[in-house]
Amino acid sequence: MFSSNWLLVVLVTFLVTPLSRGQLTPSFSPSATLSPSSSPSALLDAGEPSASASASATAPPNPDRNKYFHEPGGDDLLHHYDARFFQRIVTDEERKDTLRHLIRAYFLTFEYLGLETWIAHGTLLAWYWNGKILPWDWDLDTQVTDQGLKLLAKHYNQTYYDYEEGDGQSKRRYYLDVNPWAWQRDRGDGANIIDARFISVDNGLFVDITGLSEVYPDTEPGIIMCKNNHRYRLRDIFPLRHTYFEGVKAKVPFSYVPILTEEYSDAALVRTEFQEHRWDANSREWLKIPKDQDVVKEEGGSKRGVSMKDDGAYA
Ligand SMILES: *[C@@H]1O[C@H](CO)[C@@H](O)[C@H](O)[C@H]1NC(C)=O
């Protein structure tokens, strides 16, 4: 049960966690290791697993019981935040701003630590178009090797990183956390397919990091896969290509085209309309498609557009 003792533990760890790492013992349930957040929602969320644990004697196995990374909710609006740092649903502007700096900070940090990593999934598709995040993205994906994952877990688990743009804006802080289930290399119950996360402390948005390993070296040599059963030929990934993403040095798989077409279809590399956005070849940006009525306004001449807007504004 969610006892007051347990609450005390959470509050105490809140005070000490930023000072050092690894002082929480494995006897805590994974969700109890959360906590560098003072938000009440994180406390509530952390209470859930113990409740389900006590119910487990009678209830059927619940994959979420073993889940390490928690989100404040499972729906589209909530599953892109780490529960420990979630405070509120961010605006579109804050989301884009956070993700852009998040991926910059990620690559700068990994370069600084000397760890190899590269862009994956939807983030790779974003890079393919213009080396920037997609304006409708909610999270970011990267990959590392299983060796990289070991280094992350051994030396950098639960560490914080500060990042400054140098543009007078305030410092941003990030938290790197490695899933204890990172060693299980098959999909398992599916609750822990993300091996590590690089999280924005400000609002909980994150980079999902997955490790790739050769799971069946005897029967499938040269095939590396993540725990969500994405399979890659070693020679499609390596040697990694050096590139830039959001203005910082980054890496992508050697044969990114087959990787992208396999995951997203051939059409994804030529289709110029996605998610209410249209690719603009001149500016090399994804621009939001104006809503129907806006298009009509433009066709009817700018004057009419303006007067309609005025009507709306002053009605
Ligand atoms: C990372 O640290 C937390 C807290 O000590 C721990 O629960 C978790 O198992 C660690 N991850 C790995 C991969 O060792």
Q: Describe it for me?
A:
By secondary structure, the chain is an alpha+beta fold. It is built from nine helices and 13 strands. The strands form four sheets. Strands 1-2-6-5-4-3 form a six-stranded mixed β-sheet. It has a three-stranded antiparallel β-sheet with strand order 11-12-13, with no helix packed on it. Strand 7 and strand 8 (231-233) form a beta hairpin. The protein is globular, with a radius of gyration of 22 Å. The chain starts with a helix and ends with a helix. Bound molecules: 2-acetamido-2-deoxy-beta-D-glucopyranose (NAG). Residues 22, 24, 33, 153, 157-158, 178, 180, 182 line the site of 2-acetamido-2-deoxy-beta-D-glucopyranose. The site of 2-acetamido-2-deoxy-beta-D-glucopyranose has 9 residues, from loops.
Number of strands: 13
Helix content: 25-40%
pLDDT < 50 stretches: 1-59, 296-315
Structural class: alpha+beta
| Secondary-structure element order, N to C | HHHEHEHEEEEEEHEEHEEEHH
| Count of helix runs | 9
Compute the number of structural domains.
Answer: 2
Question: Alpha-carbon distance between the termini?
Answer: 55 Å
Overall pLDDT score: 78
Strand order across the biggest sheet? 1-2-6-5-4-3
Please summarize the sheet with the most strands: 6 strands, mixed
Range of strand content? 15-25%
Any ligands, ions or cofactors bound here, and which? 2-acetamido-2-deoxy-beta-D-glucopyranose
Global geometry: globular
Radius of gyration: 22 Å
